[in-house]
Amino acid sequence: MRGGGRQRVRTARNRTAASTRWLERQLNDPYVRRAKAEGYRSRAAYKLLELDEKFGLLKGARRIVDLGVAPGGWAQVARKRVPGATVVGIDLLPTDPIDGVTLFQMDFTAEDAPERLREALGGQADLVMSDMAANTVGHAQTDHLRTMALVEAAAWFAIETLRPGGGFIAKVLAGGADNDLVALLKQQFTTVKHAKPPASRKESSEWYVIAQGFKGRAEDAPQSGD
User: Which residues are catalytic?
Assistant: First the structure.
């Protein structure tokens, strides 16, 4: 590459035009280059960094859950921003070890997954993060429904796991969370907002829903004396 111009990729044998375009985009993506230079495993790290700058998600968080942790960019950010925090992550895909992070390679929707995460956390969470998305099948409506089902499962996990005042962030698609999910979050949190960080590609349909100020479960309320 000369003069800092855009790098182009030749179409190799057995490589599809789509994969060539993806490779070219990666080579010319400033966030990809920055992630490599700064030691982050993926450009997704900058989405969390930008959202944290705006919403203060990680401030004061001592126990953090990362749903859909692979390859580990968000967990790396959490450990860097809050070095003493307990961070627990889960993903179907393998994730290389991260210092100070407990990792589970298993299906988050498995019956025993939520309890294993809570046991590893050792107490109520301050922040539940979800960058999960369902494997796509190429049918937009089906893909959206499958991903939103994961987001809803993540939201219920957060409601059952967070301490009062805790926060929840999740990737959603096609402009934001659906009405039922927003209604649930508004019932459980004091503020619910949508955001698309600069690191999220403009052509991507992903957004993030940020719910803060968890109101707490009935069992969290202080008990009055007789």
Answer: 171
